[in-house]
Amino acid sequence: MTTPVIAIIGAGPCGLTLARLLECKGIDYAVYERDESENTNRAGGSLDIHPETGQRALQECGLFDAFKKYARYDDTVLSLLDKSGKQHLQIGQGRDAPEIDRKELRQILLDAIPKDKTRWGHTLTGATLGEDGRPVLQFANGVVVSGFKLVVGTDGAWSKVRPLLTQATPQYSGKTYLEARINLDSPLYETLSKSRGAGTTISVGSGTPIITQRQGNGSYRTYFGLPVPADFFKSGGKVGLQDAEATRGLLLSDFYADGWSDDHKALIRHATDFRTWPLYSLSAEDMNWTPVPGATLAGDAAHLAMPNGEGVNLAMTDALNLADKIAEHGVENIDLAVREYEQEMFPRGEETISEGKAMTGIMYGEDPQPFVEIFSAFGAGGDGEEGEH
Ligand SMILES: Cc1cc2nc3c(=O)[nH]c(=O)nc-3n(C[C@H](O)[C@H](O)[C@H](O)COP(=O)(O)OP(=O)(O)OC[C@H]3O[C@@H](n4cnc5c(N)ncnc54)[C@H](O)[C@@H]3O)c2cc1C
C-alpha cells in the first residue's frame, strides 16, 4: 500500500465527510479506522442535521439527495416535561433539522468513497514526530506509517493524534447518561409510541433528566441522566451494566426514581441494552495551540463538548472548512491551509464547549423553566403551551 498524501484517523461523521470532500476534489487520502469493518455495530442515537452546517456539508459532498431518503422531518418535535409528566413546552414540528440515525449517516458517506480508501482494523495507539518533524503513526496491528503531508485526527473524544498538538485532555463533568432501549417488541412499546410519538421528549428532574428519542426504525432510545462518578457503572464501580435487572433496580430505588411519574418509572422497568455515556469535555481555553507541521484535529478530537445538539454538525463543518482550505492553497501549501483552518475552527470550538456546559447545566437542573425560556426564544414554531402529556 502506498502512503497517501493525507491520513484521516477515524471513520466517524467528521473523518468520512472529509474523505468524501477530498474524493470530490481529487486529493489523495486514506481513512484509518479501529472498527474491523463497516458492519461493526457502532452505538449512538439519532442526530439532527442543521441547515447551515451539517446539511451544507452534505450538499457540498453531493449527498443531500441520499441524505433526504433517510432524513426524518417528522421527528424534529421536542417536548419538555417535568417529573410529574406535565408538559411545559412542545416546539419544532417540521423544523429544518431532520433526524438521521448515526448508522445511516455513516453508510451514506461510506458508499460515496471507494472501498479501498478505508483501512479497517487500524487502531491508532500513538503518534510521534519523526526526524523530519512530521507525524509517524503506530497502530495496534503493528503497522507503522509516515510520509504523509497531513495527518488529520478525527478520532473522537480520546484522540490519539491530539497529544501531537496539545496537552489538553477531556475532563469529566460529574454527569453521566445511561443509555437504554425500548425496542419494537417491548411490552411498553405500544403505550410509549402513543404517549411520546415522534421526536424527542426531555423530562427535567432534580438533577436526573430523562430523555426519550424516537429512532429511524420507530424504536426508542432513552437516556437516564445521573450525577455520579465517571466509573460508577464500570467494573469495580457500583453497578455492572451487564446485570440489567440490578441496573433497573438501582434506577427504581429512591436514589433515582423518587418523585418521577408512573410513566417515567415504566420507562425504567422496560429499559434494556444499557450503555454508559460519561460526559467529558475539553475546556474553551484549550482551543488554541501552536501549529504543528503535518498534523491537525477536527470534530470531537478538536473540541469535544458536552451534548448540545451541535456536535455532529460542527464535526462536518470542520471537515468542509478544512477541505476547502486545502483545495484553495493546494497540497504543496498544506501547512498554510491548516493554519487558516485552525484559526477559523478555534472560535467554533470555544463556543460549542461553552454551550455544551450551559446546556448540560440546564438539563441536569431542578426546574424546566430555563429550558422553556431558551427554546421559546428559538421561535421554533411550537405553541409553547402547557398541558398534560
Ligand atoms: C450521549 C450523547 C448524545 C449525543 N447526541 C448528539 C446529538 O443529538 N446531536 C449532535 O449533533 N451530536 C450529538 N452528540 C455528539 C456527537 O456524537 C459527536 O459530536 C460526533 O459524533 C463527532 O463526530 P466525530 O467524527 O468527530 O467523532 P466520532 O463520532 O467519535 O467518530 C470517531 C471515529 O474514530 C474512530 N476511532 C476512535 N479512536 C480511534 C483510534 N485510536 N484509531 C482509529 N480510529 C479511532 C471511532 O471508531 C469513530 O469511528 C452526542 C454525544 C453523546 C455522548
Automatic annotation (TrEMBL):
Organism of derivation: Podospora didyma
Sorted UniProt keywords: FAD, Flavoprotein, Monooxygenase, Oxidoreductase
Protein name: FAD-binding domain-containing protein
InterPro entries in the record: FAD-bd (IPR002938), FAD/NAD-bd_sf (IPR036188)
Superkingdom: Eukaryota
Record-level Gene Ontology MF annotations: FAD binding; monooxygenase activity
Domain FAD-binding: 3-349
